[in-house]
Design goal:
mainly alpha
């Protein structure tokens, strides 16, 4: 599977009605729109890792800009 085909697969799944519900749940569950900072640096890093997965999934639904 090429990177372009993989992106298209992510888009097909995540932009469906059910996929949008899953992204909404993951965004809320893993604090996409909240601060991940805690006094414990290990906990902060863990939370940022969770957030990063959701950000990755969202990035796969966006049109990729052509390379110049």
């Amino acid at each position: 599977m090429t990177p372009k085909e993989l992106r298209q697969t992510y888009r097909a799944v995540l932009m469906s009605e059910d996929g949008e519900k899953v992204i909404e749940d993951l965004s809320a569950r893993f604090g996409l729109y909240t601060s991940s900072f805690t006094p414990n640096s290990d906990e902060t890093a863990f939370r940022e890792g969770q957030r990063d997965v959701v950000l990755f999934l969202l990035s796969m639904t966006k049109d990729q800009k052509p390379k110049e």
